[in-house]
Amino acid sequence: MLLPCLRIVSMLALLLLPLLPQALPLPHAGDVCIVGAGISGASTAFFLTNYTTSPALQLRVFERRPRVGGRLATVTIAGDRFEAGGSIIHPRNLHARRFADLLGLAVKTGGDDDWLGIWDGTRFVFQTLRPPPPGSSWLRRKLHGLLNSLLLLNRYGLSLLKMDRFVQEMLQRFMLFYNGTDSRPVFGTVEEMLKWTGLYGLTRRTLEEELTNAGLNSRTISELVTVITRVNYGQSVRISGLAGAVSLAGSESGLWAVKGGNWQLPAGLLKASSATMHLQEGIDSITDAGDYYVLKSNIGNEYNCTVTVVATPLDEVNITFNPPINIPPRKMRHTHTTFVRGLLNHEYFGVRSASDIPELIGTMELPDIPFSSISILKKYSKDDMTYKVFSRAKLEDGLLDQIFRRREETIRINWAAYPHYEAPEVFAPIVLDGKQLYYVNTFESAASAMETGAVAAENVARLIISRRGVESAAPRIKSFAEEEEAESSVKLDL
User: Fold this and answer.
1) Which CATH number is 26-107+253-329+421-472 given?
2) 20 to 30 Å CA-CA from 40: which of 2, 120, 222, 491?
3) Are 138 and 292 in contact (CB under 8 A)?
4) Is 36 helix (H, G, I), strand (E, B) or coil?
5) H-helix or E-strand containing 334?
6) Residue ranges per structural domain of the chain
7) What's the DSSP call for residue 363?
8) Is pLDDT of 471 > 60?
9) What is the mean pLDDT of the chain?
10) Domain 108-176+203-250+331-419 falls in which CATH fold?
11) Interior CA angle at 490 toward 160 and 232, to 5°?
12) Cα–Cα distance for residue pair 197/245, rounded to 1 Å
């Protein structure tokens, strides 16, 4: 099968994960304060705890919301719980996979037979085949996959292979981040990280430019690629090339999620790190007091921290820094996620009945289309389903009543989901003041996903340790690939 049917994936496919190094002392340990309890903040706390053995190390994590997880959360409709933020994890997201294993979290896998329709605002310009009914034989499912591949090949030609080659080349470069520390530097800037892997050039040009240079035809870019970028990043093919490659990596199969919600990953990591949690306590200001920082919270408390890690996007939080920091301006792209229990209006989509509407509707980059995608989350009956709708703006009731024939329940969530990508990208510093004030989420300007948050956090943890005088200790780290080779239990298909 040349290209599996598309899945909604906002997660990056990465390849190697290091084991925990020999524990190292953290000199002059005091409070290490982390602002943000999402996957980046939780991963930072976890890696710091497992990369050091200082009994005096005190981790404090501040979260302005009443819950941990950041952009990982769930909603409940008709007694069923659905992912509202980052929903699917790629099988090669090995940080996330290791976290789930270490925390003993149960996982669930999804099917790979989505019925995709590409809608131009008037009609479906392309559809894959309806999936075979549950319980179908292995032969029927294989035949279904083969026929879908032929349909894709007939419409998009060799551009499918060229697109896959483009993604695989990106992944091969990204895997270098997971080499053992004897061959992997500690990086002080995002530019260093990307140049070391050979990925920096992808942030200088748009995805459209990169794919045109790779030989993809215009139909593939305007239809198939556009659907993927609109689903995963809510943006067009004018996004930067690396973010676009990350988005395209989400067209593979074998996707999984944590049963009960992916938010359990950061929640478990924070518990494992024994961090002191400050929920519903945001940080209003961070002041350099010489050998430490004074953090003032929105409920009037003050904390002295020898190291401070900002693990939330600074674009939409009001934190005052004294002295001021200098970071490039960055806009966040808001994704409006609307959950609807009801039934789509077949007349709106120009088909004969609701049963003729594909299960995953992707859209082209046209001004009159009000949503990026619509997918079925659960079918209760042929006339009763729960849907997830992605859009760039709030969908008002009047518009929803046009799109849906019937609505029993509607839930809206407005996420500041990821940066607004544009080429060439400009990156904020990882070390914001040249001292001990760190910014994990600057890496999001390269690509935003659950796994990239963990990648950036692991580097920040190593950077904190190395800049506090233990860089020469040479921790003994075995790479994930070396472990798998020793166990002879898992083969990575590169």
Assistant:
1) 3.50.50.60
2) 491
3) no
4) coil
5) strand 332-344
6) 26-107+253-329+421-472, 108-176+203-250+331-419
7) E
8) no
9) 87
10) Polyamine Oxidase; Chain A, domain 2 (3.90.660)
11) 40
12) 15
